[in-house]
Protein backbone atom coordinates (compact mmCIF):
# COMPACT_ATOMS: atom_id res chain seq x y z
CA UNK A 1 0.00 0.00 0.00
CA UNK A 2 1.31 3.40 -0.90
CA UNK A 3 2.01 5.53 2.12
CA UNK A 4 0.11 8.72 1.53
CA UNK A 5 1.08 10.23 4.86
CA UNK A 6 4.77 10.11 5.72
CA UNK A 7 5.18 9.34 9.38
CA UNK A 8 6.82 11.68 11.83
CA UNK A 9 7.59 11.40 15.49
CA UNK A 10 5.77 13.77 17.81
CA UNK A 11 6.90 14.94 21.22
CA UNK A 12 5.10 13.30 24.13
CA UNK A 13 4.05 16.04 26.53
CA UNK A 14 4.54 15.54 30.24
CA UNK A 15 2.90 16.70 33.45
CA UNK A 16 2.22 19.51 34.35
CA UNK A 17 1.23 20.40 30.75
CA UNK A 18 -2.45 21.44 31.09
CA UNK A 19 -3.47 19.67 27.85
CA UNK A 20 -3.17 16.41 29.80
CA UNK A 21 -5.91 17.64 32.14
CA UNK A 22 -8.42 18.68 29.50
CA UNK A 23 -11.44 16.70 28.31
CA UNK A 24 -10.62 16.01 24.67
CA UNK A 25 -12.98 16.79 21.79
CA UNK A 26 -14.83 14.19 19.75
CA UNK A 27 -13.28 13.36 16.39
CA UNK A 28 -15.60 14.54 13.62
CA UNK A 29 -13.17 14.94 10.71
CA UNK A 30 -11.45 11.83 9.37
CA UNK A 31 -9.53 13.76 6.70
CA UNK A 32 -5.82 14.03 6.02
CA UNK A 33 -4.87 15.86 9.24
CA UNK A 34 -6.51 13.09 11.24
CA UNK A 35 -4.82 10.38 9.14
CA UNK A 36 -1.43 12.02 9.61
CA UNK A 37 -2.08 12.19 13.36
CA UNK A 38 -2.91 8.47 13.45
CA UNK A 39 0.31 7.59 11.60
CA UNK A 40 2.41 9.83 13.80
CA UNK A 41 0.88 8.45 16.99
CA UNK A 42 1.62 4.87 15.90
CA UNK A 43 5.20 5.75 15.12
CA UNK A 44 5.62 7.74 18.32
CA UNK A 45 4.18 4.89 20.43
CA UNK A 46 6.53 2.38 18.79
CA UNK A 47 9.51 4.68 19.11
CA UNK A 48 9.08 5.40 22.85
CA UNK A 49 8.45 2.37 23.04
CA UNK A 50 5.02 2.05 24.59
CA UNK A 51 1.91 -0.11 24.27
CA UNK A 52 -0.63 2.72 24.12
CA UNK A 53 -0.88 6.41 23.38
CA UNK A 54 -3.70 8.95 23.53
CA UNK A 55 -3.84 12.04 21.30
CA UNK A 56 -3.66 14.53 24.22
CA UNK A 57 -0.21 13.05 24.97
CA UNK A 58 1.00 14.45 21.66
CA UNK A 59 -0.69 17.77 22.42
CA UNK A 60 -3.83 17.09 20.37
CA UNK A 61 -7.02 17.41 22.39
CA UNK A 62 -9.00 14.87 20.35
CA UNK A 63 -10.63 11.61 21.37
CA UNK A 64 -8.23 9.26 19.61
CA UNK A 65 -6.15 6.41 21.03
CA UNK A 66 -3.73 3.88 19.60
CA UNK A 67 -2.88 0.63 21.39
CA UNK A 68 -0.53 -2.15 20.32
CA UNK A 69 -0.61 -5.26 22.46
CA UNK A 70 -1.52 -8.96 22.08
CA UNK A 71 -5.22 -9.77 22.43
CA UNK A 72 -4.27 -12.62 24.76
CA UNK A 73 -0.86 -12.18 26.35
CA UNK A 74 -1.08 -15.59 28.04
CA UNK A 75 -0.45 -17.22 24.68
CA UNK A 76 3.29 -17.65 24.26
CA UNK A 77 4.78 -15.50 21.48
CA UNK A 78 1.40 -13.86 20.80
CA UNK A 79 1.85 -11.06 18.30
CA UNK A 80 0.82 -7.56 19.26
CA UNK A 81 -2.31 -6.27 17.58
CA UNK A 82 -2.70 -2.64 16.58
CA UNK A 83 -5.93 -0.89 17.63
CA UNK A 84 -6.89 2.60 16.47
CA UNK A 85 -10.02 3.96 18.12
CA UNK A 86 -11.67 7.35 17.76
CA UNK A 87 -14.36 8.40 20.24
CA UNK A 88 -14.03 5.26 22.37
CA UNK A 89 -16.75 4.43 24.91
CA UNK A 90 -17.03 1.57 27.34
CA UNK A 91 -20.13 -0.56 26.79
CA UNK A 92 -19.06 -2.88 29.55
CA UNK A 93 -16.59 -2.57 32.41
CA UNK A 94 -16.57 -5.77 34.44
CA UNK A 95 -17.05 -5.55 38.17
CA UNK A 96 -14.10 -7.81 38.85
CA UNK A 97 -11.20 -5.48 39.50
CA UNK A 98 -7.55 -6.41 39.23
CA UNK A 99 -4.54 -4.56 40.56
CA UNK A 100 -1.62 -3.93 38.25
CA UNK A 101 1.44 -1.75 37.99
CA UNK A 102 1.07 1.13 35.56
CA UNK A 103 3.28 3.86 34.30
CA UNK A 104 2.68 6.58 31.75
CA UNK A 105 4.78 8.16 29.03
CA UNK A 106 3.53 11.56 30.25
CA UNK A 107 4.51 10.90 33.87
CA UNK A 108 8.14 9.76 33.68
CA UNK A 109 9.86 7.72 36.40
CA UNK A 110 6.75 6.95 38.39
CA UNK A 111 4.76 3.72 38.71
CA UNK A 112 1.63 2.97 40.66
CA UNK A 113 -0.71 0.17 41.61
CA UNK A 114 -4.04 0.76 39.89
CA UNK A 115 -7.26 -1.25 40.12
CA UNK A 116 -8.96 -1.75 36.78
CA UNK A 117 -11.80 -3.83 35.36
CA UNK A 118 -10.52 -7.16 34.14
CA UNK A 119 -12.78 -7.12 31.10
CA UNK A 120 -14.16 -4.31 28.94
CA UNK A 121 -16.10 -3.86 25.73
CA UNK A 122 -15.19 -0.72 23.82
CA UNK A 123 -17.16 0.77 21.00
CA UNK A 124 -15.86 3.54 18.82
CA UNK A 125 -14.86 4.42 15.30
CA UNK A 126 -11.97 3.12 13.26
CA UNK A 127 -9.65 5.38 11.30
CA UNK A 128 -12.15 5.61 8.45
CA UNK A 129 -14.96 6.62 10.78
CA UNK A 130 -16.60 3.18 10.71
CA UNK A 131 -18.10 1.70 13.87
CA UNK A 132 -16.07 -0.96 15.67
CA UNK A 133 -16.42 -3.02 18.84
CA UNK A 134 -13.46 -4.42 20.78
CA UNK A 135 -13.60 -6.99 23.55
CA UNK A 136 -10.54 -6.82 25.78
CA UNK A 137 -9.40 -8.74 28.84
CA UNK A 138 -6.49 -8.57 31.24
CA UNK A 139 -3.63 -6.25 30.43
CA UNK A 140 -5.18 -5.17 27.12
CA UNK A 141 -8.32 -4.08 29.02
CA UNK A 142 -6.09 -2.14 31.42
CA UNK A 143 -4.34 -0.32 28.57
CA UNK A 144 -7.68 0.74 27.07
CA UNK A 145 -8.88 2.06 30.43
CA UNK A 146 -5.62 3.99 30.90
CA UNK A 147 -5.85 5.54 27.42
CA UNK A 148 -9.54 6.48 27.66
CA UNK A 149 -8.75 8.14 31.00
CA UNK A 150 -6.30 10.36 29.11
CA UNK A 151 -9.20 11.60 26.94
CA UNK A 152 -10.98 12.75 30.09
CA UNK A 153 -7.97 14.47 31.64
CA UNK A 154 -7.46 11.65 34.13
CA UNK A 155 -4.01 10.21 34.82
CA UNK A 156 -3.06 6.96 36.51
CA UNK A 157 -1.59 8.93 39.41
CA UNK A 158 -5.17 10.02 40.25
CA UNK A 159 -6.27 6.40 40.61
CA UNK A 160 -3.13 4.80 42.01
CA UNK A 161 -3.37 3.16 45.42
CA UNK A 162 0.33 3.79 45.91
CA UNK A 163 3.04 5.42 43.82
CA UNK A 164 6.74 4.72 43.74
CA UNK A 165 9.85 5.55 41.76
CA UNK A 166 11.04 2.41 40.01
CA UNK A 167 14.58 1.35 39.18
CA UNK A 168 13.30 0.31 35.79
CA UNK A 169 10.04 0.66 33.84
CA UNK A 170 8.91 -2.44 31.94
CA UNK A 171 7.79 -2.11 28.32
CA UNK A 172 4.14 -2.97 29.04
CA UNK A 173 3.97 -0.31 31.75
CA UNK A 174 4.64 2.42 29.20
CA UNK A 175 1.21 3.76 28.17
NI1 LIG B 1 -0.46 7.33 29.88
Provide structural commentary.
The protein is an alpha+beta fold and 175 residues long. The protein is built from 3 helices and 8 strands. It is 19% helix and 33% strand. It has a 5-stranded antiparallel sheet. A 3-stranded antiparallel sheet has the order 4-5-8. The structure holds nickel (II) ion. Nickel (II) ion is lined by residues 104-106, 146, 150, 175.
Short description:
With 175 residues, this protein is of the alpha+beta class. The protein is 19% helix and 33% strand. It has a single domain, classed as Peptide Deformylase, CATH 3.90.45.
Q: What's the β-strand tally?
A: 8
> What structural class results from the helix and strand content?
alpha+beta
SSE string: HEEEEEEEHHE
Q: Which spans have pLDDT < 50 for at least 5 consecutive residues?
A: none
Mean pLDDT: 94
Q: What's the helical proportion of residues?
A: 10-25%
Largest sheet: 5 strands, antiparallel
Write the CATH architecture name.
Alpha-Beta Complex
Oligomer: single chain
Shape, please? globular
Q: Strand sequence of the main sheet, in spatial order?
A: 1-2-3-6-7
The set of bound ligands, ions and cofactors reads: nickel (II) ion
CATH superfamily placement: Peptide deformylase
Report Rg. 15 Å
**What is the level 1 CATH name?**
Alpha Beta
Number of helices: 3
CATH topology: Peptide Deformylase
| Gap between N and C termini | 28 Å
Strand content: 25-35%
Q: Into how many domains do the coordinates divide?
A: 1
Amino acid sequence: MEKKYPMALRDVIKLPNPVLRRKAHKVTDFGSDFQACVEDMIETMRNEPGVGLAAPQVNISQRLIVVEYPEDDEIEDALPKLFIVANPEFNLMSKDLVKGTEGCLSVPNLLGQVERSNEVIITGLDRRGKKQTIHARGWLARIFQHEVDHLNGVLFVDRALELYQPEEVQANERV
